[in-house]
Amino acid sequence: RNLWTLMADIASLNTAPVITEQYVKHLEKVIDRFDAKLEPLSSFVIPGEKQSSAYLHVARTITRRAERALWRVLDAGESVHESNLKYLNRLSDLC
Fold it and tell me: Which GO terms of the molecular function aspect are on file (predicted)?
């Protein structure tokens, strides 16, 4: 549901963003909970050992691509809600 909200935010810049810092902080808390359950990395992880990790890798790369596209919109002089950029960044880290 948050992705639909994010898309609406990006499409309607004439209104205040719905995806606010509160959404970003929630993602950060989720990331922290997952990180707390993981052992520290001792080597580079190559995704794809399991199908689920391959799906997450694809989701991460698509989310990064969307983030870069939104930065290009901003670089072109268009308005972008800062919280939308932050949300995409944190979402890709979650993947």
Answer: ATP binding; corrinoid adenosyltransferase activity
